[in-house]
Amino acid sequence: MKRGQVAIFIILALVVIGATAGIIYVKTSDKTSKQDREFFASLENKPSLNSIQSSIIDCSEETSKQALDTIAIQGGYYTKPENSLELSTSFIPYYYNQGTITQPSKTKIESELSSYINENLKECINQININDFKINQKSPETTTTINKENIQFTIDSPITIEKQDHKIIYELEDSPVTINSELNSIIELAEYITQSHNQDPAMYCISCVADMAEENDLYLDLIPMADQTSLLIISENHTSSEPYSFAFLNKYTGDEKSPDFTAGNQGNIPPKEI
Question: What is the pTM of this model?
Answer without folding.
Answer: 0.79
